[in-house]
Write a structure and sequence with these properties.
Layout (H helix, E strand, L loop, with lengths): L1 H6 L9 H6 L2 E3 L6 E3 L1 H6 L4 H5 L5 E3 L5 E3 L9 H5 L5 E3 L7 E3 L4
Antiparallel strand pairs: 1-6, 2-5, 3-4
Length: about 100
């Protein structure tokens, strides 16, 4: 019954991806579930992770080190696949933590 109501919510079909993502909820753990090998990232020229992450969580800090903000992670695993150098150690957040999707 709930699924049916969600399906017919007014305007739901017209929502942009960014709008749908904006109403997702996150319960963040204290510890990250994404680790980077800085030695590997330091030699990387392509920075695939920055372009691959749909949530724009990867960036360079003031020391030019690659960092990832795990708090907004959509748990898609794309960064782990996109990083062909094996720098990304990724696992799902612990039980009860992470993203709760509303509209996908
Ligand atoms: S995570 Fe992978 S793609 Fe991103 S900077 Fe490091 S080595 Fe490069
Ligand atoms: S799992 Fe997806 S959303 Fe999370 S950091 Fe990697 S690419 Fe970004």
């Amino acid at each position: 019954m709930i699924r049916t109501l969600w399906f017919f919510l007014p305007g739901e079909g017209k929502m942009k991806i960014t709008e749908k993502l904006a109403i997702d909820a996150f319960k963040n753990d204290k510890e990250t579930h994404i680790l980077l090998d800085q030695k590997v990232c330091h030699t990387c020229k392509e920075r695939f992770c920055i372009y691959a992450c749909p949530a724009n969580l990867y960036s360079l800090n003031e020391k030019e080190e690659m960092v990832v903000e795990f708090a907004g992670c959509l748990e898609c695993g794309t960064c782990m696949i996109a990083c062909i150098y094996g720098s990304v150690q990724w696992k799902y957040p612990r039980s009860e933590f992470g993203v709760q999707y509303r509209f996908g």
